[in-house]
Amino acid sequence: MEIKFSSYIEVFNVAMNLEEAGIKFYEEMSKKIKKSAISKLFLQLAKDEKKHRQIFLGLRDEFSKSFADEIWTIEPLEKEYLRNLVETGVFYEVAHLPAMTVKTLNEKDVFSIGIQAEKDSILFYTTVSEKSLGSSTKEAFNKVIQEEKKHLDILNKYIKELK
After folding, report:
1. Which residues pair with 72 in a beta bridge?
2. What is the mean predicted confidence (pLDDT) over 123-141?
């Protein structure tokens, strides 16, 4: 049995929430980490996440006008996978940490969180892209996936320098 839901609106809202969590995380960490180069890096990553959020906002608005009745069919296991990916994602977990715990994070912790969050985003967006019906939606998700992969590469380079 398949579960049907209004995929585009729901998925774009989830994508925007993921990006919003990334913005908040990177902005907070830019204030926490006192090294200028790292602080600037986190501000740039937050800026990139803002662009991603705008992409998804535009897609959501476009689809809510043009394809309001379009339904995306997804297997129950895939829907559960996507839900779990979002609900157990690193940004979600960090957002729910006590303030004292966040204050004790060191540079390596912050980079590790960023790396895992980028991986989570890539997994979510890849799964959604594979299920997308329209080519413009696939292109948009694939564009964001490529940018998230760049973030992952940048963060990996920095964490290697910390070792």
Report:
1. 5
2. 81
